[in-house]
Amino acid sequence: MKKGIGHYHIGDAFDDFILIKSSARGVASNGKPFLTLILRDATGEIEAKLWEITKEDEEVFIPEQIVRLTGEVNQFRGKPQLKIFSIRPSNASDGVQVEDFVAKAPVEKEVLMEKLTEAIFEMQNPSLQRMVRALVKKYQEGLLTYPAATKNHHEYVSGLLHHIVSMLSLAKELHTLYPETNKDLLYAGVILHDLGKVKELSGVVTTSYTLEGKLLGHIPMMVEEIGNMAKELQIDGEEVLILQHLILSHHGKAEWGSPKPPLIREAELLHLIDLVDARMNMLNRALDKVKPGEFTDRLFALDNRSFYKPLFEDN
Amino acid sequence: MKKGIGHYHIGDAFDDFILIKSSARGVASNGKPFLTLILRDATGEIEAKLWEITKEDEEVFIPEQIVRLTGEVNQFRGKPQLKIFSIRPSNASDGVQVEDFVAKAPVEKEVLMEKLTEAIFEMQNPSLQRMVRALVKKYQEGLLTYPAATKNHHEYVSGLLHHIVSMLSLAKELHTLYPETNKDLLYAGVILHDLGKVKELSGVVTTSYTLEGKLLGHIPMMVEEIGNMAKELQIDGEEVLILQHLILSHHGKAEWGSPKPPLIREAELLHLIDLVDARMNMLNRALDKVKPGEFTDRLFALDNRSFYKPLFEDN
Amino acid sequence: MKKGIGHYHIGDAFDDFILIKSSARGVASNGKPFLTLILRDATGEIEAKLWEITKEDEEVFIPEQIVRLTGEVNQFRGKPQLKIFSIRPSNASDGVQVEDFVAKAPVEKEVLMEKLTEAIFEMQNPSLQRMVRALVKKYQEGLLTYPAATKNHHEYVSGLLHHIVSMLSLAKELHTLYPETNKDLLYAGVILHDLGKVKELSGVVTTSYTLEGKLLGHIPMMVEEIGNMAKELQIDGEEVLILQHLILSHHGKAEWGSPKPPLIREAELLHLIDLVDARMNMLNRALDKVKPGEFTDRLFALDNRSFYKPLFEDN
Amino acid sequence: MKKGIGHYHIGDAFDDFILIKSSARGVASNGKPFLTLILRDATGEIEAKLWEITKEDEEVFIPEQIVRLTGEVNQFRGKPQLKIFSIRPSNASDGVQVEDFVAKAPVEKEVLMEKLTEAIFEMQNPSLQRMVRALVKKYQEGLLTYPAATKNHHEYVSGLLHHIVSMLSLAKELHTLYPETNKDLLYAGVILHDLGKVKELSGVVTTSYTLEGKLLGHIPMMVEEIGNMAKELQIDGEEVLILQHLILSHHGKAEWGSPKPPLIREAELLHLIDLVDARMNMLNRALDKVKPGEFTDRLFALDNRSFYKPLFEDN
Amino acid sequence: MKKGIGHYHIGDAFDDFILIKSSARGVASNGKPFLTLILRDATGEIEAKLWEITKEDEEVFIPEQIVRLTGEVNQFRGKPQLKIFSIRPSNASDGVQVEDFVAKAPVEKEVLMEKLTEAIFEMQNPSLQRMVRALVKKYQEGLLTYPAATKNHHEYVSGLLHHIVSMLSLAKELHTLYPETNKDLLYAGVILHDLGKVKELSGVVTTSYTLEGKLLGHIPMMVEEIGNMAKELQIDGEEVLILQHLILSHHGKAEWGSPKPPLIREAELLHLIDLVDARMNMLNRALDKVKPGEFTDRLFALDNRSFYKPLFEDN
Amino acid sequence: MKKGIGHYHIGDAFDDFILIKSSARGVASNGKPFLTLILRDATGEIEAKLWEITKEDEEVFIPEQIVRLTGEVNQFRGKPQLKIFSIRPSNASDGVQVEDFVAKAPVEKEVLMEKLTEAIFEMQNPSLQRMVRALVKKYQEGLLTYPAATKNHHEYVSGLLHHIVSMLSLAKELHTLYPETNKDLLYAGVILHDLGKVKELSGVVTTSYTLEGKLLGHIPMMVEEIGNMAKELQIDGEEVLILQHLILSHHGKAEWGSPKPPLIREAELLHLIDLVDARMNMLNRALDKVKPGEFTDRLFALDNRSFYKPLFEDN
Question: What residue stretches are annotated with the HD domain (chains A, B, C, D, E, F) (predicted)?
Fold first, then answer.
């Protein structure tokens, strides 16, 4: 069996460290308090009930606490639930850390950053290159670690950078196939399109939306950032406006959050590249969990479809 | 009969000055060139054909030229058309000017600006007041003359200012009726909500969209402006973000151009006030042209509805 | 802490009278019967479980029974639940009555009725005034007490009247700002627009829909009422038809229940006033429950949005 | 060639009487006035231009005037146009009348009325029967002659009655196939469902919408009529409400004009019967005009579809 | 009380045989395993919990096992639940069989098949008749027993055949009322329209979708079948194409699964007949379960409507 | 000036050969017949009027006739129109042929076919390879010459093959970037996805829809073809079904003509690749016609958007 809670089946025994993602107090039908824990590691998450808790339990078993747990995977209302036999908080001598329990991009962030840097070097339009370089530098820390989203696709540490680098490869190949496209503009759009997520999302481990993320969203924030940076770098010329348009329009339609649809060739292509990479990331990871001849779970961000893995796939 | 082309009926004789809005060359079935003129004054516009033209005619009868014209209002394919008996360009001694032929707000722009200034004086939140004051000052010239839109509502000189001042009256009364609302925030939202139109639209007389108007639109541009101005004035605090949200969300829904819907009470109210004032402006002007017992033309921006004026209205 | 169940937090002890809104029998996993009670007072409602009940319990703890209850507010599946320590039915000496536990309009119904009467006095069109007066008289009893809806907005005793009077203030101010509007027609529309609710809804305390409410709805019922009353009062003239149209179209669109959209200026304005007042009522009450810096619960009737209360609001 | 303008092809000579449906004055590129005539007979309509007209022509060639015309069917901008060689108004000795040029139901109205009467005789529920009988009597004149619509289906003299009688046959058969259905209720719904058209439409020959048709529509008007008639006949009982519901819901969905969807079995069936008969009427008439192997014109009321007549149909 | 679980009310005692439809293991709050059973007979289904189970219980109480059960119908979270007092698997001497617990068409399949055969005999177009005959023969076994759907309408043994025969009656009558229609084509469409369900659905008792059902659906599969059969029978001529079109378009719209809408008269009629029969089947069965004066449950496939049975219906 | 009618501007003189695409007779206001010609060459098309024609003219100037024409490009109702000074049919000695006037893929069809053959050679799954090879062979003639559509994208000779080969390059690169994808399946889907167009479209020069194209569409026809070919080649295994699913689902959504959405990873990717290549083809060709700083015409198949070519693009 592959390691990690995402690979357990109903009936499997569990004996490992795992991270508490959330913890909520309830009162059972016998009047005793209990905790509903959401436990996670890098492969997935599972619910567990800790019955008849003490006051100390409530103070110990809190979010971001790692625990040592033995139990069994059961089913409750059609979903897996981890039945707890024993549980204790981890201690220093256990040698476990929060980051061990968090999914990460399948490529090291240093490698990803190197590829990003290479792409920037390839750019020849000085206005575009300078803006991209300055913004990447300004948000480098977040860029190295943030996920690309809170769920659905690339929702892991360095997911944003992974998504960008994967899209850059796509952009490069598409530019070769359609040489009429402006590669520099495409690269700039790819690199900056979701950089606003660094301000929209709250952080890396338990990611939620910031207040400005909720009230403005990453798209208008990034449009403003580009405007500011152009002023700061004293860059004039249509590149600034066009780049702002690429960011603004990359969701493709008003109802998907882009007040203007793509009106520039590279804006249209950026939107399509984003779509392809996000969907392939979701699909590959969902299909990785099933055997040939099986269907995946329903994938919410893919119109709730459940995908089939053909028998002739040797997985 | 009220003066102005908007008040003519089929069969009426015409003998007056009028402004050429557009002019396009065609070739008639007899092989002779002709001009299709769109003529306008402050009350409306009408098409006319100038048959068998000379080269000079083509050079003289161009947009923004005032002409002296005699003719008759006919009907062609169900729409009024001005049959030309005689036409000549105006000259200095005629004492007519372009601005005489352009619709203007029914209130003088100085009066409107005074009312706007009063409203700003009423504001007590220093962050909001300073931002509003600075942005009004920065865009004062456009604010005094721009229309609120290229068509549909307040599409006349100083229409933007007229719309703002009318909405301020609404805001004041609604704040009295719903005292829980924050008047300063509401005022700031009303004053700035469409100020980006000064950058989105090309000018006052023959208004079209600028390139940045087409690629970004007035909403993201104004969000950026507020961010910039706050930096310039070194204003911190949630007011900046909240005000940006009011601007961003004032169209109410993603499909109407607001990537975030209103998530603040005053943002919701701003959206509704904008709706009420725009619709009443359209309705009042359309109903002003018909008699009791008649229906207006179809109003595109009101879902193509045609409105009825009851018989018991004394017009 | 403000009084009332709507103001309790998880962990608070409860010791007070409260009204049973509904009661349903279940069987626990230990095979013993229990009751799921929905308890309410004027500020909100909460679920509670009464475990291991007797036959008598089932007969005593029924809807509209007031009970004396001690307990604690817990959380169950993410929602508050009142854990019962002790419970007994109220008795005569307790001095509590059902109406103490029901939300009421924040203004006394006599005051509201007075304002309504004043508005009717202002009306000068005799046809409209006579119809309004007669219908208000006919349905006065329901008008004084009915809610404006079963949920969402003005869903409290005298909510309908409160909504009408609030809209009348709005109508008065809007007529001042847009003097072209016909005030009498607007008043008549406001007063009668939802009067059919008195026939559509079943009553004041535990409000549901009547059979004719389900099969016809308040809009066609009120259109018919106006037609009947006009016949009874022998009123001729376009006012009858126009008023019927205002009622018919006040939901604004076919998909919202108006087979005809507003085709009269005052019909459009009536629709907008109704929207403004309903939304402000929902928003003010939802925001009243949260502190600055917090978001409200999702508001179903406002597209499921969750609204933010800015930090600079002094609540 | 079948008689009637609907059967002419491009190039055919025309020499017959025909009715002027509408007449509009224009001015040609040579400055001379002309008339655009819409000419019709019972089989269709065609446009014609009458060039270089005199004042008398304008007074003579007006709507509802029959003319004797020779000419040729040409094509103009892809549509047939009748080129006029000679034209004169008909006179008494011509022996032609307006009603000869108007399409009529393929069955005599007396026969239709007899079938309607038979159906009413079949009804056994006294409340339903009395209401139907009274309303049919009240609107008998219009019922005998009105079309069922201004266009799309049964848009000919006695079209409404033809539609009702055809639906009654359907209702009878469906009741046999689904004996659980209440035949009396179904009959009552069928007979009354569109009777409000008699008030919604302006008349038989050049049919448009009345003011109350535009502002209320036939559905709410008929609901009110049924309520009134029940009062007049002092009929109590659920039949009145249920019958009102059938009328109200027979368009099937809010966006199609029914504020309540069918919530009674017979209401659902009424909606479906109406659909079947309207569509078959449109389809049969459109396919009657084409040969096997051809497609019909696009049918607007059938989602703009163009239908194919198979080769194996013997026409 | 009518026999069958579909006719029980809360509080009723149960003592009868019943079939296990599905069985899922869970762990209760006391740590003991239990089974959640879905039990069914021909009249409906109900949930039951079997507490504190043994390993053997898990092996015995599995899908398609008949059990003898005593218990009581309770309510849990608003839905009926069968509280188990005693349960045992049926044995040979009980004389019960799976097919006794499965709903069947109200008419014997032999009778239905006879009617189908008669209809085929009536057909006169040799191409259509031969294709229909051959396909009915090829799929006769499935046709005799398959349901028409997994849920919503005709979801019982021989439901498909029942649906076809009922539609044939409708088709016959509609052809009489609209004699322009091609009866043979209509019959062929009716008989074959859902025959692909025999390949789309997995079987008769616990019906789910086959892999090709999920990936292609019954419509394209049947189009292919008709093409193949025509080749096999060496049938040429437009009938093959037209019949394929009828099958392809019978869902009426692209969003309902028909890539082409009906473009042939009989295709449109087939779609409508299918609609009428499916809806009447659902409605009749839902209304059969309620008393006059009551509403049915919400019917998902009828837009979630809840239908009313009038008081004047004698049930 | 680039050669070809697509590169002319208003006022340009024309003196060249051109092909008649369509010809329609009309009658002018002076009573004389004329022809409306649509003229085309490989770069575009233009309307022209041939006034006062003779009978012979009507017989000579017919579709697919090449003519020698002198004239001038004018504007009529906002669209270019070619004013004819002289016109004559081409003759043998002119050395012009129809195919000179038809747009072709920018790559020779032999080169394209070679690339297709290479891709087939790369395939390793024998079932997929054999089916693809056999179908390409069967439809080779059409595949070499057909357009990919009647309008919008790749609507030129060999457009279908050009589209396939371009998508194969995309598929190859995407397989490299996402190695989890099955390249053989992707190639098979790409090659066959639109092959049904060879049966759906009528031909190469004046392309319209065939009857089976209208009644079935290329998707169900190709699904059937694959099924037939698999039978003929006696290929079993899931590959057949999966490949049929890829074809069936490649439009992505039911409302776009795919009764099943993609439920296989490669089906999703096929849909996206198709989208990218079709859109880039449209965009590149539209932008090729405008200068930097200009907007293209509205592109119907791209939601009617008009795209901007930035100033910094060197054209």
Answer: 163-279
Indicate the CATH number of B109-284 among 3.30.40, 1.10.150, 1.10.10, 1.10.3210.
1.10.3210
- Tell me the per-residue pLDDT of D83-139, one tens digit each, with 9 for 90 and over: 999 999 999 899 898 878 888 899 999 999 999 999 999 999 999 999 999 999 999
Both tokens assigned to C119: 């508005």
Angle at C240 between CA C237 and CA C246, to 5 degrees: 135
Residues of B in contact with D25 (CB under 8 A): 10, 74-75
Which subunits sit against C, judged by 3+ Cβ pairs under 8 A? A, B, D, E
Structure tokens at E277: 């029969």
Which of A107-116, B3-12, C33-42, E262-271 is predicted least confidently? Answer: B3-12
In the stretch 215-244 of chain A, residues with CB closer than 8 A to chain C read 215
Tokens of residue C43, six digits: 């500020």
Whole-number mean pLDDT of chain E? 92
Amino acid at E74: N
Cβ-nearest to E217 among F217, F255, F259: F259
CA distances (Å), origin F19, targets D77, F43, F81, F88, F100? 21, 12, 15, 11, 9
E284 in contact with D at a CB cutoff of 8 Å? Answer: yes
For residue D146, the tally of other CB atoms under 10 A from its CB is: 26
Return the pLDDT at A78.
Answer: 66
Buried b (16+ CB within 10 A) or exposed e, A218-232: bbbbbbbbbbbbbee
Cβ atoms of A72 and A82 within 8 Å: the answer is yes
User: B255 CB contacts (<8 Å, ≥6 apart)?
Assistant: A254, A255
CB contact under 8 A, F220 and E215: no
pLDDT category at C78 given cuts 50, 70, 90 is low
Cα separation, E62 vs E98, in Å, equals: 13
Considering only the beta carbons, identify the residue of E25, E31, E214 that sits closest to A75: E25
**Chain F positions in Cβ-Cβ contact with residue E244 (cut-off 8 Å):** 215-216, 220
Chains near A with 3+ CB pairs less than 8 A apart are: B, C, E, F
Q: Which of B268, B279, B287 sits opposite C279 (nearest CB)?
A: B268
Name which of A23, A25, A29 to mutate to probe chain C: the one with the most chain C Cβ atoms within 10 A of its Cβ: A29
- What is the secondary structure of F229-260 as a DSSP string? HHHHTT--SHHHHHHHHHHHHTT-SGGGT-SS
For F82-117, b/e burial (b = at least 16 CB within 10 A) is bbbeebeebeeeeebeeeebbbbbeeebeebbebbe
Average pLDDT of the residues in F121-129: 96
Which among C29, C51, C75 has CB closest to A24? C75
Of C214, C248, C254, the CB nearest to D255: C254
Best F199, F212, F215 residue to mutate vs chain E (most E CBs within 10 Å): F215
User: Please, what is the angle between helix D238-249 and helix D183-192, to 10°?
Assistant: 50
Q: What one-character-per-residue DSSP string does C244-274 give? A: HHHHHHTT-SGGGT-SS---SHHHHHHHHHH
Probe site for chain B from D29, D51, D209, D211 (most B CB atoms < 10 A): D29
User: What's residue C173's pLDDT?
Assistant: 95
Q: Please list the residue range(s) of chain F that carry CATH number 1.10.3210.
A: 109-284
Q: Whole-model pTM?
A: 0.90
CA torsion through residues A80, A81, A85, A91, sign? positive
Mean pLDDT of C119-143: 96
Q: Do A83 and E214 touch (CB under 8 A)?
A: no
Touching check for E261 and chain F: CB below 8 Å? no
First to last CA, chain B: 14
Report the SS3 class of residue F17.
strand
